[in-house]
Amino acid sequence: MAHFLATEASAPIDGIIFPSVQAVGDAFNIVLFHGAARIEPMNVPEGAEISASTGRWAEDGWVDDYEVLEKVPSSQGDVDNYEQEPACPAVATGKAAPVAPRDADWRDYSLRIMPESVRVHHVRSVEFATDKFAVKRRRQEKHGSIDI
Question: CA 23: distance to chain centroid?
Fold first, then answer.
C-alpha cells in the first residue's frame, strides 16, 4: 500500500502517518516517501575532517560521551571578494561548465539537520503487549460432493 501511495497516487503524497504498535496511546510512526526525504547538506567548510566519538575512558571506566569534531583548515585571513572563484566558471574562464551526472538528485531539500538538537537514546528494553489465539485444526472426510 505504501509503495502504491508513493508512486501511483493521483495527488502527490509526501508520506504517511500511522499509529505505532509498539507504544500505547498517542504514539505514531511517520514514513516519508522518497520525494519528501532529501536532506539539506550541512554547512561544513571545504577540506574539513570530521570524526566522531561515543565515549572516553575515565578513572571509573567507560563514560558515554558523544561528540562530533570538525577539524577545519586554518584560515588565511579574509579573502578579497574579487579573489574568490566566480559563481559561473564557464563565463569567467571560457570553459564549458560541468554537466550534471545522469543520476543527479533534483528533488528539493525537505529536511534539515539541526546539530544542536541531535540526541542519542540508549534503548534498554522494548515490550510488546500481545493477545494469543489458538489455531484449531480440523479434518473432514469428503463423501462424493457432500462434506460430512
Answer: 22
